[in-house]
Design goal:
The chain is mainly alpha-helical. The protein contains 4 helices and no strands. It has a single domain (3-91), classed as Monooxygenase. α1 (3-19) runs parallel beside α4 and α3 packs antiparallel against α4. The relative contact order is 0.18.
Amino acid sequence: MQTGWLTALGLVAGLCTSLSFVPQVLKAWREGDTAAISKRMYVSSLIAYGLWIVHGLMITSVPVILFNGVNVVLAGIILALKLRGLKATEAH
């Protein structure tokens, strides 16, 4: 398979993966309700995305690096909202 097609496939797959986070980010941001969000899941996801970025750098794959970077940002926002919600709950 040609490299261009592989890169295009990776870009489309990465875009789909990253876009799947957007509804969760918007819901958590707007409603502030993060009770059903698993802190452990997002911590482990951030670790996994970080490892994928390292892997992408090692194989010089733009889609792997780019979209795992986007996923780190989006998952990080969700985790930050979760942690902020936990602190607000503890303060009451």
